[in-house]
UniProtKB/TrEMBL annotation:
InterPro entries: FAS1-like_DH_region (IPR039569), HotDog_dom_sf (IPR029069). This is FAS1-like dehydratase domain-containing protein. It comes from Rhodococcus olei. Residues 6-132 form the FAS1-like dehydratase domain. It comes from the Bacteria.
Amino acid sequence: MANPDAVGTEGTPFELVVERGKIREFATATYSTNPDYLDRKDAVAPPTFLTTTLLWQPPEGNPWKAVELDGKRGLHAEQRYEFFGPPPKAGTRLTCTSRIADVHTKQGRRGGEMTFAIMTTDFHDETGQLVARATMTGVETARPTTEAS
């Protein structure tokens, strides 16, 4: 069962360097043909590129483990990105900090009570300016859902 005491847990800040080659690889992997992602020396990161932070955040500094969702009953429910200016470009160094913003429950239709956990990750540039915020929502059902007859 998810731990409601995880709310407010903050992870260790870590760095994400927005690299031109990684932008191109990400754009290619997502079947983009946008030249702003593929051909420019100052390539712009696609909005969902920030998902790659999952590859850079040190496991011991990730606050998500404090939520303690049961992986057998867990789902990735939503991912949202909010930008406070243009998306970062190649060469930008971002400092990223994740924190558990909320844990709450609601009654589900088939699987009983559902627990929602929300983690936000803030992305600041070299000047300290907030560039973007990612919000991830995970869900844990009270019991495994069954197939409808």
